[in-house]
Specification:
globular, single chain, eight-stranded mixed β-sheet
Length: 243
C-alpha cells in the first residue's frame, strides 16, 4: 500500500446456509450438542454422533472398539459391528478431527487384526508412540495358546508433550466378571492412562463406551467425559452405573 491508497478488499469465503446455521447453533449454548453430551452417555451410532462435535474439542480419547472377530461370550452376548470393518476409517477419522492437536488416543484392539488397526490409524493421521499390555491372572480363551493378556496402542495426534510421570507399558488386570458388558474393562486398569495423558478438568472421549468404564475412570480422576454407545442394553447399563 503506497501513496495513501486504500488496502484492497479481501474476499471472505461465503458460507452456505447450512454452515451459517451451524455457526449460529454453536453460538447458542442451548443448541450446542457438545454441551448436552458432557458427563453423559449418548445413545447412538458414533459415526453420526461424532459428526455433531466441533473440531478439536476432546483432550484425550480412550476407547475399546470392536475387535473385528465376531465375538460372543458364553451367554451369547455380542458387540455391534464386530463382524465388519466398514466403520473403522470413518470412526477414527472423526476421532482424529475432534481430538485436540498434540494429544493422545488410547485404543484397545484385537491382536489378530493388528495390521488392519495400525493401517487405519496411520491413514487417519495417528501414529503409535507406545503400547500397553495388561497381564491377566486367568485365561479368557484357550485354543492354540492360553490367552492371558489385553492390549492397547498409545497413539499421538501431532507432537504431544510426554507426561511428567509416564505409566508402565505392562500393567496388572483385575477381573470385572463382565457383568455389564461382554468385554467390560476394569476401571483400575484405565485410571493410570487417564491420569497420565490428560489433566484435571480435561474432556475424555469414548465413542465405543460399552458399560461406561471410561466415564467412571474419568470422573474418579476429576475429568469430564463424553461417552457414546450404540447398543441400547449396554447404554442403559452404563447410564445406571454412571447415575
Amino acid at each position: 500500500m503506497t501513496n495513501g491508497a486504500a488496502a484492497p478488499a479481501v474476499a471472505l469465503p461465503r458460507l452456505t446456509p447450512a454452515e451459517s446455521g451451524a455457526r449460529a447453533a454453536w453460538a447458542d449454548p442451548e443448541m450446542n450438542p457438545l454441551a448436552r453430551m458432557v458427563n453423559q452417555i449418548t445413545h447412538g451410532d458414533c459415526l453420526s454422533v461424532l459428526r455433531q462435535l466441533p473440531d478439536a474439542c476432546a483432550d484425550m480419547v480412550l476407547t475399546d472398539p470392536p475387535y473385528l472377530v465376531s465375538y460372543k461370550d458364553r451367554s451369547g452376548r455380542s458387540i455391534a459391528n464386530d463382524d465388519n470393518r466398514r466403520w473403522m476409517f470413518p470412526a477414527f477419522a472423526e476421532l482424529y478431527r475432534v481430538l485436540k492437536p498434540d494429544s493422545y488416543c488410547v485404543s484397545f484392539y484385537g491382536w489378530s487384526k493388528a495390521d488392519r488397526f495400525l493401517s487405519v490409524w496411520r491413514e487417519c493421521g495417528f501414529y503409535p508412540v507406545g503400547h500397553f499390555v495388561w497381564i491377566k491372572g486367568y485365561a479368557s480363551s484357550v485354543r492354540h495358546v492360553r490367552m492371558k493378556h489385553e492390549q492397547a496402542y498409545l497413539l499421538a495426534k501431532g507432537d504431544p508433550k510426554p507426561p511428567a510421570c509416564p505409566p508402565a507399558d505392562v500393567l496388572p488386570w483385575s477381573y470385572t466378571g463382565n457383568r455389564l458388558h461382554p468385554t467390560q474393562k476394569p476401571v483400575a486398569s484405565l485410571t493410570p492412562l487417564v491420569q497420565a495423558f490428560s489433566k484435571i478438568g480435561d474432556l475424555v472421549l469414548d465413542p465405543f463406551a460399552g458399560s461406561g468404564s471410561t466415564g467412571v475412570a474419568a470422573r474418579k480422576c476429576g475429568r469430564r467425559y463424553v461417552l457414546i454407545e450404540k447398543d441400547a442394553a449396554y447404554h442403559r447399563a452404563a447410564q445406571e452405573r454412571l447415575r
